[in-house]
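Priority: low. Protein: Spore germination protein. Input follows.
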Amino acid sequence: MNLIKLFRKRREPLNRSLTQDVFHEYPKKQSDEHKEPIYPSLLESGNRLKDIFSGCQDFIFLPWHYGANLQYSAMAVYCLSLVQEKKVNYFKTIMQDLVPHCVGPAANVTPEDVFNYFENHGASSETAHIIGDLDTAVRDILGGNVVVLFDQWDKALSFKAITIQERQVMENLTEPVVRGPHESTVENLMKNIGLLRNRLKTPDFKLNFLTAGGKSQSEIAYGYIEGAVNPETLAEFQKRIMQVKEMEILETSYIEELLEDSRYTPFPQVRITERPDTAVAALLDGKIFVMVSGSPSILICPGLFMEFMQSPEDYYQRTVFSSMIRLLRFTSFSLTVVLPAIYIALTTFHPELIPTVLLLTILNTREGIPFPALLEALIMNFFLEILTEAGVRLPRPVGSAVSIVGALVIGQAAIDAGIASPAMVVVVSLTAIANFALPQYNFSLTVRLLRIPLMLLASILGVFGLMIGFLWIMLHLMSLRSLGQPYMAPIGPTRPRQFRDVFVRMPMDILLRSPRNRQRHYSSALTKEEG
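Result:
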């Protein structure tokens, strides 16, 4: 028989026939009794699949014949846009598995031989799994599999053969570090999991897979380290993650709101990273990660306030430098939140608190400015936000240049036009620079939002309004939870044993001498208190 080489087989990390139930937890929108079966008649099954994929011209239906006088028929179905390189003929592989020689016409093979061989898990050259209904066949074909149907058999064989072009592992551009690993996650789910497995060589690293609902049928993976994660947190997470079975999920950010305890707070309750080393460190710390096929982002939960002030590079530098830089981040956080508000409060209500020489300088620079301090600050912050967004959206080589040149031009033009004073330009510039010092982008968005209400309170009530704003923020932070965990831990509630890695980073021998994860620290503290 003249056979055409068709498909290229990419080897899977695990045997699909043995792990199908583990890797695919499909949404049960309909019971097995209501799933459309594969018909014993090849013509009927083939016509049904042709009806399902009608109008999709990149789906190939390739008939085959085998046996004595080619009297038996089969059909291979696949998506040409997903199986782009055709170098392995799976039908020929099936025939060669059933005959005692590597090559030959396979004239003595019958449909019963095929059924018995694969239903009894005979050893095959290419890994395949048996599917028993058309719904699963359609899902496998759309997932890049080659499905082979046989006449007189109410089942089919499915081979993994997806060969779409993918981005290779490269340096992380969103979380750069001077020292430490430079690799980043990509859009391939299994490749990302492999990056984590390579660093966590332990059977305690547990993985679970499920499939989102809707038309996307995105594959979702979440994992944790058994014995490190808090069981109550894990149970609450699993309860919430099950909601994705009825939703269209295209990116990990879609899942973020499902896991949050409070959806309307400006503070993020999960961390997002594209660094495998950051995800592994979080797992050792008792966290849970979530990944979605087609997205390089890793979602880490629960996310606590103090963790947003930490950077992966803190653990790759010496203790003194890491602690100094971390304290600098806390200072930057305070400056970027309150500096414009303090300037407005002092210049509007409390000029007596400003040193005389500095006060005279500020008054001299504000002479001729037609706006009050609040409106002046809002205008300059508006210009700053536009420049920040322009720098993010523009191509990377152009964005940084536009941000720098734009800031210089607009700042000087605002001073020359009498729209803003030089002191206000300095304050807004320091605010922006301090904001860029924060390591987590989603947390820096929160800080940008908090400035506005604090500036309004400072313009109405001065320092007293600023104190009201601080109290409101602190009360709000203390009331927040992330998957049931206190958002401000270990500050509130106070857990002294965890202070070794909050404002400063203790030496590595102290950090590594005891378990890293907070759950074990917390359990040990409770045991000592009870004793």
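The mean pLDDT is 82. The chain has 18 helices and twelve strands.
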